[in-house]
Fold these 3 entries.
Entry 1:
Amino acid sequence: MDIMIVSGVHLDHAWTGLGTQFGSALRGWSRHVLALVVEEANRRNAGVLLVAGDLFDRSFALPATVDYASQILGTFSGDVVIVPGRTDWIDGTSLYSTQEWAANTSICSSSDYQSCSAASTLWVSAWTAPGGSAPRVPVATGPRVLVRAGMADDDGVLAVPELVHDPREPGGSALLINSATPNEPARQVDLTGQPGSLVDVDVTDLLDTDALADAIDAVLMPGNPLLLRLHGTLAPGVLLPGFGDPEHSLPPGVVLDLDSLHFATASLDPADRSARGEFLHAMAYANTADLQRHQTTALGLAALAASAQGT
């Protein structure tokens, strides 16, 4: 019997680091891809559909969303097993406990590894708190597969990809295993189509604000949420979008990732007592984060240059 395993549907997740439009697109995709999962599991005649954690985010999920999930999972032709994970952990107040679920759906509520009644070679462990250590793996004879959300293969537990995922992380697929041979490598089932894109731009050779703006304009995708990851070393005097230059602001739906960015500093001449020199000396010793120091310096240099030109 085939078992389809998915994780990280993330219904009603906030996606706070991706902005309003990107987050909204992913929340819409979560609802759509759950239906695709059931459709694909039915098409492949899987006997069990295992939801291995993070079906929803219990901090934000609405009862209506959980009702939707129950209805969709109820259309699966076999047994549905839900094993709560890090964001949908189960206790007495969880929507797993307070909402009604379809007749074909069972919910694991134990943090200890237990064999599933729907497939005896499938051993699962639920998150019953938002943190804590993983449970001990019990000794057992015969082949089996262990499933607990948020674990890696090297933990001896099957690592299941996030179905709906941050574009900086891998994901977008389900797994298929055979209950009779659970130790064989899982087969990957791609469920592509997640909205949004990730684009990397190296800023090292972009020596002024206009050059950076041109490089960004070249990769924009109208109508599609975009995560723009800048990397390399940003030259002194280059202003990032959203840092004081309205002409170079980003369109809605574009989010900047600056975590991989390094910041160059302007060379200092100890003998320079000009307004520019004094400003650079002051900024060099400013007690602030590198990003704020760099962009404040860039704004100041632009203002000094404009003043020198009489503009």
Entry 2:
Amino acid sequence: MKRLKLQSLSAEQMLISSSMEFWMGSKQSLFKKGKELLTNKKFLFVFIICLFLGILVSIKLLFFQKTKNFSFYPESTHLQIKPILKLFSQKQYMNITSYVETILPSLEGEAKAVALFYKGESYFKEKKYSEAWNVFFPLSRSNPEIWQALFRLGCLHALRNELLESEIIFDKIKADFEEVHYWKGFVFYQQNMKKEAKGEFLKALSYPESIHSLALILHSEGDEKQASAYYLMLLKQYPDYHEEALKYLIAYYDKNKDYHELLKYLNEWEKIYPYNLKNREKKAHTLYSLGKKQEAFDILNPIASSLNSQESYRILAEITFDLKNYPLAIQFFSKINQPNKEDKKKLITALIQTYQYSDAIQLINSLTGSQTLNEDEIVFFYKKLIQCHTGLEEWQEALKYAGILISIEDKAENYLLIAEIFKMQKNKSGYLSALKEAANRNPAYLSHFFNELLETGETDEGLTVLNTILQSTPNHEEALYFKGKFLAAQNKKEDAKIALYRLIYLPPKNKELEAEGFYLLGTILFDEDKKEEAAVFFENALKVKPDSPKVILKLSLIYLASKKYRQALEILNILKKDETLPRETQIILYDFLSRAEQGAGNIQTAAFYKKRMESLKNMK
């Protein structure tokens, strides 16, 4: 090999010399000299040889760089050493020690030293450290060129926790091998010199021990993200670290609430320990955190009694509560030894939903009498008490708590609660009075109030309220609409039309109200047998609300009467697309469709729709 290197250098010198001669010529003779060199067979031969040798050298250097970590161990060309190397590669360490003892008398010089090293190394691999020391110590003295023997003494010192002695030896070792870097890192790590340890371990990443140590150091420094990356390397590449890596990754992603990643590693752990209850519990908790409540329940419910875990009972209670399985939710809430306020609030709701009003009242009273509550909590519990006493038909108690609630929060919603109590009592005046108070506090409830007045026939009272509103706000859209509606109910159609004309010519900002205004005007005109005028308002209503069933049916009736079958079919087919129509509306729809198709000359289609109408009529 040395000779090969010398030849290579000589050839390179020849190439450089020729190249210099080539480039030193004048500009005019460059092409001529180049042509002469290229036609010179001797030059071409030398050039090709140099190129070939250069490639060989590059390959050798590259190979050496890639295999430097595997050449830590000394080699020998001695024939009797080759079996040792083979046995060592096969990890037959016990066979090596006996074989070396057999051949040692026949060896001398380098071969003997190499054989002794492998004997010591076999003891080292077998963790027979005393025997290894007895080989390496004299070998390091007699054959200092086998530096690996001295290095192993440093390793043995490290294993004895004689770190200073190790450091002294390792300072003498300058070899760049991963084995060396790992052990130097090990000594630094034992001395708590983490920065130096990291530097060495990073140069020995083909060793799982280095990766593991880096993970431990980074974790101790608070860099859990980078530590998790090294544990992931261990998980993917080294089965011996599989469980430890999984434990760390599970803890890391659990702490950081990365539930998607956490679930992935919990599934990996489940492959190793499929019946581990704690892992299944954590998996269920993770699924719950991901919103997969049914999956969480299916895992947790069968093992809950075995776990007897308060957190699991709480999760099961919350899952069943969210799924509206209130009887089961009550069972799980009752198993929580120290329920918090949220647990108790949900339990109260579950009790009310299952009509266990007395139990709910008892629980509420225990909370309101023994704990300090904020205003929101007091409001919550009083509303629940109102529900309970209403359910028990204890009206006075319900009204008492409703009154207390209003003294805390003078809000429209609380008057609606009172209205509901009066409605259940069939107290008409109290009901309407409470609705009026709710509407006074929140205009959003005006429609509800006026519709209830219409339903109960209290049109005079309704008009009084409406006129009061319109005196202060003449263009109040909702008031104008309901005034028209109340007047129409009193058969004061001309006055009703005036109010509705005022509404639609504003025009109203509320498009729903605009469509209703057009429809109500059209209905009044329809009832007055002014079909053509009515059709105009119905058509305008459809422009605002194209799929209104009541408008389509009224307008199609006018079209059928005036034999405008095509127009009738056009709007009826829009309504036919609505699959949510009540059966009564569908019967009218198919009746009109049959009549329109009959009028248009489509006899078979008309018959089909008529048959459909008859089948709907006969449905029970």
Entry 3:
Amino acid sequence: MERLNYDTVIGADGIHSPVRTALFGAESPRFTGIVSFRSVVSTEKVKHIPEIEAFIKWWGDTPQKQIVTFPLNQRKETFIFATIGQESWTEKSWTSAGGSSRTP
């Protein structure tokens, strides 16, 4: 097998990257101490929030806290992304159903 040298390799092949594994070996996931919540809601449900129909980026009082919102589908829906610090993560999946009762 011929060995090639490059200054930069871009492997845009997903979270389970075969390119990264080929270059650096297998890695286990490491918890960063930050969890994220994502949702798409009807803009009608959040229209009381000032400027919700614009792109919003909010930073909290710690680097782990942030909220990003932006309109979708001709402003009929709003995408919401939020992060918060958390000491541990017990879920065994990249995705988990949630609701307002689970939101810290």
